[in-house]
């Protein structure tokens, strides 16, 4: 089975690797400066790259990299590409540097080879930097993100006209604060020495003042990650200093900061430096897939962090705990625009929940419908009583839960167009928000204190203040409110970042990091 899995992984990885694709458009004529060399088009054939051929067609088959300053900056960008989570070896840095060192004595044939290889590598680098190395749409069926397509030839043509190549390259990178914090996280993880830790195992939870032989290894781990100051000698007693250090470690990993050493804490302790670095690299790749422009005002959800933030003009104005989809019914990754807020929503039962949960429940007990305030309608819109409900036609009926406190969507629903029929909503299980791990839903995102979020989104103190919203809620009548402001929504997935000089990690609840790193 392991061999089969490895073969499948290799197949998918090669199938998902990105080739640089030209975007259909009129390629502008590229004006070549300096003393150029003619390039025979036959020399482009071994690269099997349409975008490379189109580039040199636009230059009238002349070399373009006559500027020593430009060549050196591009080579420097390749060498430093590991800072962006890329691999310098993919851009032929050694061969290109050899050409550059001998540039003054290169023959025309060698200058042609250098020019072509530099262009081909630069095209690849631009594509990887702006849109990642892998096609995410082939990896994840429940991700719906618009590709950050960049016309590499137009980009290079613009760079050749510009007097600021560094600025142009910087513009290709994701500019979101999380991406920048991930780059910082990569620097931080690289500053740690290599570790030689063995796996920590405990039979029972360890609490303050316990004695346990594993505590020496645990303390070494806390010292290594700088959650605890180094000590000359370590004992097997769980003292108060170690307890406070453990709480810091737990906070950094999104665990309950109670100082109790249980399975989740031990699992986090058992990550090596290399595994954490791989996690950071996977997240750097992922952030290259995410939208470059989030919008002036946007809601952003980080699924593994169980957190929603409302951002206006780059300032976070609200944060909310959320409940997200469990592993078997994951919340999809997507970007959209909020178009509607519904107070006292009805809930039409979606197909998956209907098949896996509701039909079995009704089959066991017809009173389930009355208990949950659900009405059944046939294809003609006629009401079907519990007694007339036929299991053989169960999937053809429409099941609608009336508004009210017992409604699964709670008192507010926030809509945005998407092909998964997911949305943000209140819940009738508000006790879920006290849990540390909140991957408990069937795919939609449940929001704590959603009325405060809705009021802020509506941004209309005269018509939609707390008093008026409360009055509508008390009526238990459904009210549809169209959004006037342009507010984007981004439901995304990242499990690592940094805050200051501190590394932050979250549990990879959908097990995406390791596979993505292997494909990279």
UniProtKB/TrEMBL annotation:
UniProt-annotated catalytic positions: 425 (proton donor/acceptor), 444 (nucleophile)
Database matches in Pfam families: PG_binding_1, Scaffold, YkuD
Domain of life: Bacteria
Keyword Cell wall biogenesis/degradation: yes
InterPro entries for this protein: LD-transpeptidase_YkuD-like (IPR052905), LD_TPept_cat_dom (IPR005490), LD_TPept_scaffold_dom (IPR045380), Peptidoglycan-bd-like (IPR002477), PGBD-like_sf (IPR036365), PGBDSf (IPR036366), Transpep_catalytic_dom (IPR038063)
Annotated pathway: Cell wall biogenesis; peptidoglycan biosynthesis
GO annotation, biological process: cell wall organization; peptidoglycan biosynthetic process; regulation of cell shape
GO molecular-function term, one example from the UniProt record: carboxypeptidase activity
Keywords, comma-separated and alphabetical: Cell shape, Cell wall biogenesis/degradation, Peptidoglycan synthesis, Transferase
L,D-TPase catalytic domain sequence ranges: 297-472
Chloroplast among keywords: no
Coiled coil: none
Similarity comment: family membership: Belongs to the YkuD family.
PANTHER family: BLR7131 PROTEIN (PTHR41533:SF2), L,D-TRANSPEPTIDASE HI_1667-RELATED (PTHR41533)
Protein name as it appears in the record: Peptidoglycan-binding protein
The organism's taxonomic lineage, starting at the top: Bacteria, Pseudomonadati, Bacteroidota, Flavobacteriia, Flavobacteriales
């Amino acid at each position: 089975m392991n061999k089969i899995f490895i073969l499948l992984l290799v197949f998918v990885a090669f199938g998902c690797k990105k080739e640089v694709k030209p975007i259909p458009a009129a390629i502008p004529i590229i004006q070549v400066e300096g003393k150029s060399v003619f390039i025979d088009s036959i020399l482009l054939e071994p690269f099997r790259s349409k975008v490379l051929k189109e580039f040199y067609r636009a230059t009238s088959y002349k070399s373009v990299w006559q500027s020593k300053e430009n060549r050196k900056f591009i080579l420097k960008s390749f060498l430093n590409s590991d800072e962006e989570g890329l691999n310098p070896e993919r851009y032929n840095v050694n061969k290109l540097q050899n050409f550059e060192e001998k540039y003054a004595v290169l023959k025309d044939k060698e200058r042609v080879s250098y020019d072509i290889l530099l262009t081909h590598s630069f095209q690849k680098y631009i594509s990887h930097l702006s849109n990642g190395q892998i096609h995410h749409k082939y990896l994840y069926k429940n991700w719906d993100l618009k590709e950050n397509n960049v016309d590499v030839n137009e980009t290079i043509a613009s760079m050749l006209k510009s007097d600021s190549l560094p600025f142009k390259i910087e513009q290709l990178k994701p500019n979101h604060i999380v991406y920048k914090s991930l780059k910082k996280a990569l620097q931080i993880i690289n500053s740690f020495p290599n570790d030689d830790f063995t796996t920590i195992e405990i039979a029972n939870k360890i609490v303050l003042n316990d004695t346990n032989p594993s505590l020496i290894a645990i303390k070494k781990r806390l010292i290594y990650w700088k959650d605890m100051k180094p000590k000359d000698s370590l004992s097997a007693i769980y003292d108060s200093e170690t307890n406070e250090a453990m709480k810091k470690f737990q906070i950094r990993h999104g665990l309950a900061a109670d100082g109790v050493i249980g399975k989740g804490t031990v699992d986090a302790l058992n990550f090596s430096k290399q595994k954490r670095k791989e996690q950071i690299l996977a997240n750097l790749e992922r952030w290259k897939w995410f939208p470059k422009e989030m919008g002036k005002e946007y809601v952003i959800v980080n699924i593994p962090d169980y957190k929603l933030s409302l951002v206006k003009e780059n300032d976070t104005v609200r944060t909310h705990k959320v409940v997200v989809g469990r592993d078997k019914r994951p919340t999809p990754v997507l970007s959209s625009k909020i178009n509607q807020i519904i107070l006292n929503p009805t809930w039409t039962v979606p197909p998956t929940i209907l098949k896996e949960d509701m039909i079995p429940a009704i089959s066991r007990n017809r009173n389930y419908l009355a208990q949950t305030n659900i009405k059944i309608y046939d294809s003609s819109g006629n009401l079907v009583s519990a007694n007339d409900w036929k299991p053989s036609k169960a999937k053809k009926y429409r099941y609608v839960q009336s508004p009210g406190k017992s409604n699964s969507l709670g008192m507010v629903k926030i809509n945005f167009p998407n092909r998964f029929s997911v949305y943000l909503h209140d819940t009738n299980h508000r006790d879920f928000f006290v849990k540390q791990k909140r991957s408990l839903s069937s795919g939609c995102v449940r929001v704590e204190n959603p009325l405060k979020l809705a009021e802020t989104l509506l941004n209309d103190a005269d018509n939609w203040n707390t008093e008026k919203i409360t009055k509508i809620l008390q009526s238990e009548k459904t009210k549809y409110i169209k959004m006037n402001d342009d507010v984007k929504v981004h439901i995304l997935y990242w499990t690592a970042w940094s805050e200051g000089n501190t590394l932050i990690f979250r549990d990879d609840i959908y097990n995406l990091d390791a596979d993505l790193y292997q494909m990279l």
